[in-house]
Amino acid sequence: MTQQYPIGTPGKPWGDEEKQAWFEQQSKQRDYKDNVIRRIDHLREQFDVETYGELNYDGRSFPLYVVRSQNWRVDRPTVLVTGGVHGYETSGVHGALYFLETEAVNHLARFNILVAPCVSPWGYETINRWNPAAVDPNRSFVTDSPAQEAALLMQYLEVHEIAPSVHVDLHETTDTDNSEFRPALAARNGTTNDNWNIPDGFYLVADSSREEPEFQRAIIETIKPVTHIAPPDESGCLIGAPMVQEGVIEYDAKELGLCMGMTNARFVTTTEVYPDSANTNPVECVDAQVAAVRGALEHAAGKC
């Protein structure tokens, strides 16, 4: 199925005029300060909270936060949890926060914990995949990144010499991937859009260069009591990629500039929750994100 996007000329990549037209169509739909920063502030008694940068878009300032465990020890393995790299993926943001509020304390004896709950706050507020320059932060974790969202987080890890052993990046796959974001991507790039089948259920994206199949399997098993696992389509695929085991596909994370590829962590995965399923609800989606991190840490404990 193809779908023509209302901005631009089919077959012609966007220039500055089209990108500005797209930006002018975006509007604030929820509040980063009330929904995210307020919850981060409530964590200050149990965790250290640091700002690692600030985004300034359209006259507005968005401070960027990491929440990290107190009593940080260099001889202890570090887990990195990232949420809201795609700001519109709600349970990624709220799952990261809920992990800190509920589950993180259970792992402080074994890990240093570092969480960036909302990497793309402008995208969170406007419910967008891109930043205001029509750049996808989750294709921008590369040298000389075109997205401040990615560059600032990578810089923080480098300056503080943080090398995680575990990295869990929290995402969603939504119906708007087909109705909005993939058509917009094709229009921006001057290509033809072919929508993919949206998987009904939870799945993981592993890094093809660091497969760790037992790690991925442990997360899937932890998820099963919480929410349903996405079945493959008639071609044995999820979003066009072959399913390598139940609920798991693979991408080349570093080659694609994905967030999960920005470190050399041995245990790395990207979660994908489907919030538009008739078989789930917002609370279950958040619970699934927390369960995924728990499953990751329980498997990695003692192995890194």
CATH superfamily: Zn peptidases
- Write down the CATH class: Alpha Beta
CATH architecture title: 3-Layer(aba) Sandwich
The count of β-strands is 10
Our count of domains comes out at 1
Strand order of the largest sheet: 1-2-4-3-5-10-6-9
Termini gap: 45 Å
Q: Uncertain regions: pLDDT < 50 for 5+ in a row?
A: none
- Assign an overall shape: globular
DSSP helical segment count: 9
Strand content: 15-25%
Domain Peptidase M14: 28-304
GO molecular function: hydrolase activity, acting on ester bonds; metallocarboxypeptidase activity; zinc ion binding
Cofactor: Zn(2+)
Keywords: Hydrolase, Metal-binding, Zinc
How would you describe what is shown here?
One of its GO terms (biological process) is proteolysis. GO terms for molecular function: hydrolase activity, acting on ester bonds; metallocarboxypeptidase activity; zinc ion binding. This protein has 304 residues and is an alpha/beta fold. It has a single domain, classed as Aminopeptidase, CATH 3.40.630. Helices cover 33% and strands 19% of the residues. It has nine helices and ten strands. The protein has helices at residues 16-24, 32-41, 90-103, 121-126, 148-159, 176-189, 213-223, 253-256, 282-300; strands spanning 47-57, 60-69, 78-83, 112-116, 166-172, 203-207, 237-238, 241-242, 248-251, 267-273. The strands form two sheets. It has an eight-stranded mixed beta sheet with strand order 1-2-4-3-5-10-6-9, with helices on both faces. Strands 7-8 form a two-stranded antiparallel sheet. Helix 3 crosses helix 9 and helix 7 runs antiparallel to helix 9 (282-300). The termini are far apart. 46% of the residues are buried. The mean pLDDT is 96.
